[in-house]
């Protein structure tokens, strides 16, 4: 397992994050998964306040080794459906959600505290100042944002820069060969601000593992009959590349995400499945294989990215010396 720095901080985070959403009981298998992940060098466990008993389970499984992990959790969704102030990104919900998570996780600090989703009813200034207060109080160390538009995230980090607040060090988004939307605005924005990007849904509920392309494949998280031709085309490309490289489809799909500088969040249901996912670490896909994977299904950047890319080296726009410019 290799490590990268979290955003523009000095915190070392493993290239694969362990997603803990599905762990609702501290079973022997869950403990084996955590042990295998730790033994492989993994150090980031990602959960959330809204994931049922997940925080309680993670807190128990990390007893005696909590400080060796980068513990990440999230807030925004409601803690009490009957209370309008028990949800959202405002200061009151942040404070109460954080205290609840600290109790459940059996810790006195959170390494990475994510805003779970954009709350359009709360000014981003309020959220950023409240997060900074929690950092100054020592209850969280770093902040991140999940499932928010690029313009909002860039505004938040600009405000933080100007006002001396803690910026978002990480961005959490869906990303896979089948869902590349973040390449239009979010990924370039994160790169410009030096933010780490963590991705959920990298295997698209198992579609990109190739399991549903097999004859007579049984339904699991997906029914094979519900798959589109686009789904099948992507899965076929993954399986073909995997066969040529002597690896599994899951490893190819995860390695593609890793190759884009993004941290896949792996949510294994068994130690055996996690062992397979961990095989993506260190797997370098040949350029030709990457081209085949990306051409298997159509994807367009859309305006303005496609237009800007098209005119980027145009002498009609930038003059006759444009070809002499060393691009960043």
UniProtKB/TrEMBL annotation:
Q: Which Pfam families match?
A: Aldo_ket_red (PF00248)
* Listed CDD domains: AKR_AKR9A_9B
Q: Where is the NADP-dependent oxidoreductase domain?
A: 16-296
Does the keyword Oxidoreductase feature in the UniProt annotation?
A: yes
**Record flagged with keyword DNA-binding:** no
Q: Which UniProt keywords apply?
A: Oxidoreductase
Q: What protein is this chain from?
A: Aldo/keto reductase
């Amino acid at each position: 397992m290799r490590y990268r720095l979290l955003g523009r901080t000095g915190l070392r985070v493993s290239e694969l994050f362990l997603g803990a959403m599905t762990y609702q009981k501290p079973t022997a298998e869950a403990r084996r998964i955590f042990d295998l992940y730790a033994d492989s060098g993994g150090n980031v466990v990602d959960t959330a306040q809204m994931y049922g008993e997940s925080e309680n389970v993670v807190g128990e499984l990390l007893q005696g080794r909590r400080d060796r992990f980068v513990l990440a959790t999230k807030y925004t969704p409601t803690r009490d459906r009957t209370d309008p102030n028990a949800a959202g990104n405002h200061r009151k919900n942040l404070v109460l959600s954080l205290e609840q998570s600290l109790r459940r996780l059996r810790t006195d600090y959170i390494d990475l505290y994510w805003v779970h989703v954009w709350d359009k009813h709360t000014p981003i200034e309020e959220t950023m100042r409240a997060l900074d207060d929690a950092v100054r109080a020592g209850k969280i160390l770093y902040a991140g944002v999940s499932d928010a538009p690029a313009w909002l995230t860039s505004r938040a980090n600009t405000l933080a820069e100007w006002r001396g607040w803690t910026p978002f060090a990480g961005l959490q988004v869906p990303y896979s060969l089948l869902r590349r939307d973040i390449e239009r605005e979010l990924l370039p924005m994160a790169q410009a601000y030096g933010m780490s990007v963590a991705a959920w849904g990298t295997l698209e509920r198992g579609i990109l593992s190739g399991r549903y392309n097999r004859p007579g494949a049984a339904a699991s998280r997906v029914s094979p009959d519900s798959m589109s031709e686009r789904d099948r085309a992507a899965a076929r490309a993954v399986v073909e590349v995997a066969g040529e490289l002597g690896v599994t489809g899951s490893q190819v799909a995860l390695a593609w995400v890793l190759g884009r500088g993004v941290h896949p969040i792996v949510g294994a249901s068994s130690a055996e499945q996690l062992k397979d996912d961990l095989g993506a670490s260190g797997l370098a896909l040949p350029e030709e294989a990457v081209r085949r994977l990306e051409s298997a299904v159509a994807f367009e950047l859309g305006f303005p990215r496609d237009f800007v890319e098209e005119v980027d080296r145009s002498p009609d726009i930038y003059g006759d010396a444009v070809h002499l410019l060393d691009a960043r």
